[in-house]
Amino acid sequence: MKEPQSGRRPLIAANWKMHLLRQDASGFCRTLRSLLPSSPNVELVIFPGFTLLPTVAQELVGSTVAWGGQDLHQEAKGAHTGDVSGEQLADIGCSWVLCGHSERRQNHRESDRLVGEKALSARRHGLQPLLCVGETSEERQSGRTFEVLDRQLEAALAHRPQPFVLAYEPVWAIGTGETATPALAQKAHEHLRMRLGETLGKAWADEVRILYGGSVKPGNAAELGAEKDIDGFLVGGASLDPASFSGIISNSGFG
Ligand code: 13P
After folding, report:
1. Among the listed residues 167, 72, 171, 51, the one whose alpha carbon sits nearest the alpha carbon of residue 123
2. 215 Cβ closer than 6 Å to some ligand 1 atom
3. Which are the contacts of 112, defined by CB distance < 8 A and separation ≥ 6?
4. Distance (Å, whole) CA 53 – CA 237
5. Is the pTM of the predicted complex or chain greater than 0.85?
6. Closest C-alpha residue for ligand 1 atom 9
7. Cα–Cα dist 58/203, whole Å
8. Residue of the nearest CA to atom 1 in ligand 1?
9. Which of 43, 59, 73, 101 is catalytic?
10. Sequential pLDDT tens for the chain (255 residues)
11. Over the range 117-146, which residues count as b (16 or more CB within 10 Å of their CB) and which as e?
12. 79 CA distance to ligand 1 centroid (A)?
């Protein structure tokens, strides 16, 4: 088992993206609850699609598993057809929200600045933002990985949305089956923690959890989880099945 790093409790989150229907969600939650120990050492969060939130909330209430929204609008309320506010997420019992996932940045042209505003809005409604950063394949190949991460990180933290959790998700590893090697992921996490130290102070940066996301599976969770600065995972495809999600939890080495 990996020694706990500083006070950082490991966290493993499921991002269901635009998958599953209510019946699937209900079955997933029941099976997951039956597979988990009564007090896992790992903090767990599910990010279902918006229509599944009531089902997930009903199934997980009273459990050790929390839930959150995959996005929120930066304003508290208003004429924003199709958007969801932090207040509405809190109203359905969410304690978390994803901000700046690369699919939002790419498909909805979310800017770095908007991600920072969303993180601020999350905190205003008592939600913990899970801030996603990561470079594209082209950015990595042209040697700009750290430059991109620095820019995304700085904007996401512009309003100091503390507390928050960070997720490093290299875009080229998302849904491709091409996982970052543990050494490469560790290098990016170490860099992010160093930058957090410069922005927030080292003592504080040592407490921030940084998750890795991008083709995490039961088979690679152990080697990734063993790295010093990897404090958990944000899982897409392999989180849609309770057996594989719980396989990641049990193989992760997080206890
Ligand atoms: P995959 O695990 O399917 O690569 O997705 C990662 C992700 O985008 C989680 O947010």
Report:
1. 72
2. yes
3. 100, 151, 152, 154, 155, 156
4. 19
5. yes
6. 236
7. 38
8. 236
9. 101
10. 676 667 899 999 999 999 999 999 999 999 999 999 888 889 999 999 999 999 999 999 999 999 999 999 999 999 999 999 999 999 999 999 999 999 999 999 999 999 999 999 999 999 999 999 999 999 999 999 999 999 999 999 999 999 999 999 999 999 998 888 999 999 999 999 999 999 999 999 999 999 999 999 999 999 999 999 999 999 999 999 999 999 999 999 986
11. bbbbbbbebebbbbbbbbbbeebbeeeebb
12. 31
Residue 101 falls in the annotated catalytic set: yes
- Token pair of 191 as six digits: 């860099």
Which of 244, 178, 184, 252 has the alpha carbon at shortest distance from 215? 178
- Per the structure block, which two tokens stand in for 61? 């209430």
End-to-end alpha carbon distance in the chain: 6
Q: Of 158, 167, 135, which is closest to residue 148 (Cα–Cα)?
A: 135
